[in-house]
Amino acid sequence: MTLPEPVTSMAGPLRMDYTYVAGTGRSAFLRGLAGRRLLARRCPGCSRVYAPAPEFCARCLEPVGPPFELPGDGVVSTFCVVNFPFPGQAHEPPYVVAHIRLTGADNRLMHLVREIAPDRVRIGLPVEPVWGAPDTSTASIRYFRPVPGA
Q1: Which end of the chain has fewer CB atoms < 10 Å from its terminal CB, N or C?
Q2: In Å, how far from its chain's centre is CA 91?
Q3: pTM for the model
Q4: Higher pLDDT, 91 or 23
Q5: How far out from the chain centre does Cα 108 lie?
Q6: Average pLDDT score over the chain
């Protein structure tokens, strides 16, 4: 007996609308992206630098300070090569999703890494953003690419 093809997707009557509230901390980062700037905020208590920043420090619960601009580059701190297709996928595999530690920040930003073969991506790879259309979302950065000469 031949088995039928597996069901890969199905339409359903359910819909979920939601609103993401960035809060005052992350709003500064998102507004900076619209101006092609990477903004961070520093905790006055422990000096930890966040980009994007919460409203309060995760370590000492102090309100973070005013926004300031970071240089704009960073390094890959960890990554995943996506090799398998799945329904609704926005990019053709293989592609790399990485945590980027922006220069001057203590936390990481998850984004795509392009313009390099996936098997050449490594932890510590210096990267820079490739900007897209200005927007108050991380879509303002199309992806990160290796810094020339890296």
Answers
A1: N
A2: 15
A3: 0.84
A4: 91
A5: 8
A6: 91
- Segment 118-130 shows an average pLDDT of 97
In whole angstroms, how large is the CA radius of gyration of the chain?
19
Query: Would the pLDDT of 149 be above 90?
Result: no
pLDDT at 19 (0 to 100) = 79
Is pLDDT above 80 for 69?
A: yes
Which residues make beta-bridge pairs with 119?
none
The tokens of 135 are what?
A: 């927007």
The amino acid that residue 95 corresponds to is Y
**Dihedral Cα 149, 110, 136, 145, nearest 10 deg:** 20
